[in-house]
């Protein structure tokens, strides 16, 4: 292939700005078809974004001869089904995070990619954003020395502003999302931890439902011990007051601390009581750096920026924190 011709399955809120336009902006990439079950909405999306073809049937998009790669942006419940169908059709797949509902499902997707010899990437796109790459370079340069431990807090009120709004509040329906808001937000954070600190020795956690008007766990606590000796402590709670909301990841080393949010633009580094800050401009399309690397990978011009095996690690940790509670 000399060019990736994308088809999107599930052109909802996530694809409006975060990802969709980027498929037309990166080199050697075109967006040629979109699919959504609602005919009126998918036609409107295609017209607004200048996409030549639209479908209400995913199989028709998958089997479109002009499409050679599929981006799956549906709720997690449909990820495995559409991924397997695309892989069987010989189409490379880029699938949203969380990769799917649980680790067993993720393994079936990986196995199908290997069986069909088709490429599979997962949208853990923070790996390639400038701010999180800067954190990685600070860690690689040992700016705070050897790492001791990490404390992460994601404390949000019900229906937080940082969650993309949708017609149907599927993110808090475990039958569709795999869990609650933890399953929507934690994949970003846990993936970055494994990206920064490497292989996992063991993980443990617990999840509970504290609110009475929800079907999903709204508090999750978890610990990870990495083979490197780094210890991670994470707390996610989605029932605090707006005044108490927090989004912070603090990495402690022998010389100081690196602190940053997952949904912000500033890194703070403190060494011997001296503070230095790094600020970053917002990205117009947050997935564009990842999509560019995925395109290069699909074209055989680069490595996989986030493989199914990488994402499986995150799925296993999430299962340990929630399913095996």
TrEMBL record:
Record Pfam families: GFO_IDH_MocA, GFO_IDH_MocA_C3
Q: Which domain of life is it from?
A: Bacteria
Recorded hits in InterPro entries, A to Z, give: Gfo/Idh/MocA-like_OxRdtase_N, Gfo/Idh/MocA_oxidrdct_glycsds, GFO_IDH_MocA-like_dom, NAD(P)-bd_dom_sf
Any transmembrane segments, and where? Answer: none
Q: Where is the GFO/IDH/MocA-like oxidoreductase domain?
A: 132-258
- Domain Gfo/Idh/MocA-like oxidoreductase N-terminal, by residue range, is 4-124
What are the protein's UniProt keywords? Oxidoreductase
Q: What is this protein called?
A: Oxidoreductase
Specify the species.
Pedobacter mendelii
